[in-house]
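Design a sequence for this backbone.
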């Protein structure tokens, strides 16, 4: 069964890197990308992904505000906050319903571990 993932980051480059990393796995479908908070909410509510990978700093609504709205309607959707602002936003992120906070400086390899953790299973190539 394919796991549906929404990638939300204002950087085209970051979204592209995450997408290409995730698309290596046969059991993952990147169902959408969003460059701002409003598009993140709209895409999530329309597509109901299993996981949202989101940054904090985005136009229109920040990632934490977007996650808060998404989790109200889709409480089972998992969220990884992939950001430069790890510990400094922990309290707000947890209150919004973020499952894992992952610092961008840690790189993309820990992102796969985080995806496996929140989805409860290992991704398969």
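Sequence:
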């Amino acid at each position: 069964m394919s796991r549906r993932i929404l990638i939300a980051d204002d950087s085209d480059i970051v979204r592209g890197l995450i997408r290409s990393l995730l698309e290596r796995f046969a059991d993952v479908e990147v169902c959408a990308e969003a460059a701002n908070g409003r598009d993140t909410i709209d895409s999530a509510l329309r597509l109901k992904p299993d996981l949202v990978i989101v940054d904090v700093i985005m136009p229109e609504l920040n990632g934490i505000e977007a996650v808060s709205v998404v989790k109200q309607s889709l409480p089972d959707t998992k969220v990884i906050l992939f950001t430069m602002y790890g510990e400094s936003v922990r309290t707000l992120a947890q209150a919004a319903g973020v499952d894992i906070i992952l610092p961008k400086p840690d790189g993309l390899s820990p992102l796969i571990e985080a995806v496996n953790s929140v989805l409860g299973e290992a991704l398969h190539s």
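The chain has one domain: 3-119.
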